[in-house]
Write a structure and sequence with these properties.
Layout lengths: L7 H69 L9 E6 L2 E6 H4 L6 H5 L16 E3 L3 H16 L16 H10 L19 H13 L6 E6 H4 L3 H8 L5 E7 L4 E6 L9 E2 L5 E6 L7 E4 L10 E4 L2 E3 L1 H6 L5 H4 E9 L1
Parallel strand pairs: 1-3
Antiparallel strand pairs: 1-2, 4-12, 5-6, 5-12, 6-8, 7-10, 8-9, 10-11
Helix pairs in contact: 4-5
């Protein structure tokens, strides 16, 4: 018996049925995609909310610290100091004059604290009212010369460390240690043009030591050298183990983050139980701060591949008010080993 050929009407009914199935299937797919997108947006909103709360707490702490500084200055120092003040110092009998901004430029150092103006009433003075320091004048002059050179040097070409003749080198090293500027206090980040001062290097190493993560570093990627592109970033940084990201923005902020999990080109969330963010300096950053994971035991949303390259998602969130196209002036990725 020969098979019967469906009538044109029957064929039309089959085509209509298939078409109806496609129409049913398409909304279902769209719904699943919308649901996944909504879930992802909600996760980001939660991160933004948590970061906003953290920012509020940090702002309150900064205000509290600033009030304390003001109280100290009122009790022990001078409230009317400016960066342009000329500070006269009697260094072991040698009179040295320098701008206050020159002496205080390395945040966190003892020179910054000593000449900040907050302790002016407590400092020893000579008969002419100049600050008196019982130090070797040749070595202290070398330190001031170094600080002066720092004010006119570019980030790409920092000045050489203070130097004196062999007879005075031991004394110079002691004074550098005394003022918090010594080599032992200056671990470096190799080839970084963003982090090239002792205080910030120390700060980063201390933060890493807190979590048992401090190691030697080597440069993987620099945006101004390798290109600030997705391809350049991932070709240099994927599958390299723990990394430290340092970012300099176009408005001068120096920020970044650390991940103890290797980066990859795969989009999505990744665990990193020791990940943290940091802010070192720039507009709106009154003092360096470290921002750890809220819950290290629940770290499945610690890092995520977003936008330009893979960064800690909170770095992207924290800077969401800026335009990504003009946000990053330079980005350095450094590998720990």
């Amino acid at each position: 018996m020969k098979p019967t050929t469906p009538s044109w009407r029957g064929r039309d009914q089959i085509l209509i049925a298939v078409s109806n199935m496609d129409e049913i299937s398409a909304p279902s797919k769209r719904q699943r995609l919308k649901s996944a997108r909504d879930s992802h947006v909600q996760d980001l909103d939660n991160e933004i909310s948590a970061l906003d709360k953290r920012e509020t707490l940090l702002t309150e702490r900064v205000l509290k610290l600033n009030r304390k500084k003001h109280e100290i200055a009122q009790a022990h120092g001078n409230l009317n100091v400016t960066d342009d003040d000329l500070v006269e110092i009697n260094a072991g009998g040698k009179i040295i004059v320098a701008k206050r901004s020159t002496l205080t430029q390395i945040q966190g150092s003892r020179t910054a604290a000593l000449f900040s103006g907050r302790w002016d009433k407590k400092l020893m003075r000579d008969s002419h009212g100049r600050i008196f320091l019982e130090v070797d004048p040749i070595c202290f002059q070398a330190i001031v010369d170094y600080l002066t050179e720092m004010t006119i040097s570019s980030e790409d070409s920092p000045p050489s460390p203070p130097n004196v003749d062999d007879v005075n080198k031991l004394i110079l090293n002691h004074q550098l240690e005394l003022f918090g500027l010594g080599p032992e206090n200056s671990p470096s980040l190799p080839d970084s043009t963003i982090i090239n001062d002792a205080i910030n290097c120390n700060m980063l190493h201390e933060w890493l030591e807190e979590d048992g993560q401090d190691v030697e570093f080597s440069l993987l990627y620099r945006g101004t050298r390798d290109g600030i592109t997705n391809i350049a970033f991932h070709s240099k940084c994927d599958d390299k183990g723990c990394t430290l990201t340092v970012i300099k923005t176009t408005c001068g902020k120096i920020i970044g983050g650390y991940s103890n999990t290797a980066w990859s080109g795969t989009a999505g969330w990744t665990r990193a139980n020791n990940a943290f963010l940091f802010a070192l300096s720039g507009v709106g950053i009154s003092s360096p701060c470290k921002m750890k994971l809220k819950n290290a035991a629940n770290d499945e949303h610690a890092i995520c591949c977003l936008l330009l390259a893979q960064h800690l998602v909170l770095v992207v969130t924290w800077l969401r008010k800026d335009q990504m196209s003009t946000l990053i002036q330079d980005l350095v990725m450094i590998k720990g080993h």
